Amino acid sequence: MTVHEHGRYSTGIQDLPYRAVPDAAVARLAVYLRVLTSMIEQGVTTMSSEVLAGAAGVNSATLRKDLSHVGSYGTRGVGYDTARLVENIERLLGLTRHHSIAVVGIGNLGHALANYPGFPDRGFPVTALFDLDEDLIGVPLGGLSVDHVDSIPAVCAEREVTIGVICTPVPAAQVVCDLLVAGGVQCILNFAPMVLQVPDDVEVRRVDLAAELQILSFHQVRRCGTNGVGQVVDPIAVSR
Amino acid sequence: MTVHEHGRYSTGIQDLPYRAVPDAAVARLAVYLRVLTSMIEQGVTTMSSEVLAGAAGVNSATLRKDLSHVGSYGTRGVGYDTARLVENIERLLGLTRHHSIAVVGIGNLGHALANYPGFPDRGFPVTALFDLDEDLIGVPLGGLSVDHVDSIPAVCAEREVTIGVICTPVPAAQVVCDLLVAGGVQCILNFAPMVLQVPDDVEVRRVDLAAELQILSFHQVRRCGTNGVGQVVDPIAVSR
DNA sequence: GCGACTTTGTTCCTGCGTTCACAAGCGGCT
DNA sequence: AGCCGCTTGTGAACGCAGGAACAAAGTCGC
Questions:
Q1: Which residues of A are less than 8 Å from B232 in CB distance?
Q2: Could you give the domains of chain B?
Q3: What is the pLDDT of residues A214-226, one digit of tens each?
Q4: Could you say which of A96, A188, A210 has the minimum Cβ distance to residue B118?
Q5: From the DSSP assignment, how many helices (H) and strands (E) are in chain B?
Q6: Which of A60, A95, A179, B74 could form a disulfide with A53 if both were Cys (CB 3.0 to 4.6 A apart)?
Q7: Contact B71/A238, CB-based, under 8 Å?
Q8: Distance CA B52, CA B60 (A)
Q9: Residue A17 has what pLDDT?
Q10: What pLDDT digit, counting tens, does each position of A76-91 carry?
Q11: What is the β-pairing status of strands A74-75 and A100-104?
């Protein structure tokens, strides 16, 4: 592999040597991984960038560029060895280790996520559950029992939880977040519709389900040219 | 991760004024809306771009530019009138109408989403539920009863469903998607970890929960400089 | 073994989105 | 009434991501 030219991020004292892989590419790599494992199950051992790109819904040039960040694991004239590619994408994404997950807030959504097979299947075993509700404490759920949120720091540290999933209502989310951070958790997936304040060394990804719908709503209105009550939108009239 | 699978802007008669609002801005507007309504509940009537940007976790210049797409509803030297801003963002996003939702696949996740209060609270009432399982058909759930997937086209058309939420396993997702499209649904929120094939006039947003974790995992590895088993990550990637 | 074909990996370029910076505008204060 | 300070809205620059095109490289057929 030729040396990439993306090194130069002298953003201060501690040059961050990482940063070579764009965030958007990382997100797509997770998709490729999914498609590839699915293909391997069907016995596919080799794929061209064109085919894989089609299955993943991206441009083939984009795909090749993304994969170039992983390394040169393709064979010209043939394509990519699916098994080897999966292996190397997993290594880049840090999936060689199983990251254990804690789910906080065992309501409808938390319950569903605690049982979501896609997590353990992808190497993310759920190893801790927390809630505030006394009635839930101790209740067994998928081989685990629910602990009180107060024990988050201790339990997370003990079980080496690396990812916390917050499914609490908004008012509790920041408190829970602080507890997770106290327990050494540096990755948080936040389903509560609010922006969490965290230290610089903690990363939060927010999944805002209602916002997703609002975005869909916007595009729908755009497509139809109506505001949904049969009335044509006049953008100029609207803005004054 | 939310993947925007198609940004098609069909060549309509009135495509001149549209396309002004970037996709990324629309996504952020939904966040601003959330912060604003929360602030209004606390009695805040006026906010500066600086404060609002801080609460939403974005740059203030970005925020002002986003809001400029909505219209000029700020007062220089003062800030934005929160109520008026909410009103106008909602209008831009097409939220003046309540879009009704159908949830397909009443497993753990589908069950949780069917009961998710954030949907109706934000003007997205759930008006139809579907599953394949005979044991679930007719079961009442939050004021609705579960219908068979075969009836998707008829029921969606009748109840004017505008958004379909797919929570089925992967093998069923494409079939369900086709049924939704047949029922006139043009917006789909897909929780099944696969890429759906749809006509150009249908928009799909994908929420891939496991991919979110993989992205977190990647950044975690980057931060620590180890792959989680105490071993330094590939020095080539590190050195550039 | 050699040529032609296929596909990768990379380079260049274009376009978009974000950020900076500043002029215009509005309210408050004297 | 006029000035001052604060905040918006926007024009310009910058940086990054995505797409087209191409050269290198490896395979398959003959």
A1: none
A2: 2-9+19-92 (1.10.10.10), 100-207 (3.40.50.720)
A3: 999 998 887 775 5
A4: A210
A5: 10, 11
A6: A60
A7: yes
A8: 8
A9: 43
A10: 999 999 999 999 999 9
A11: unpaired
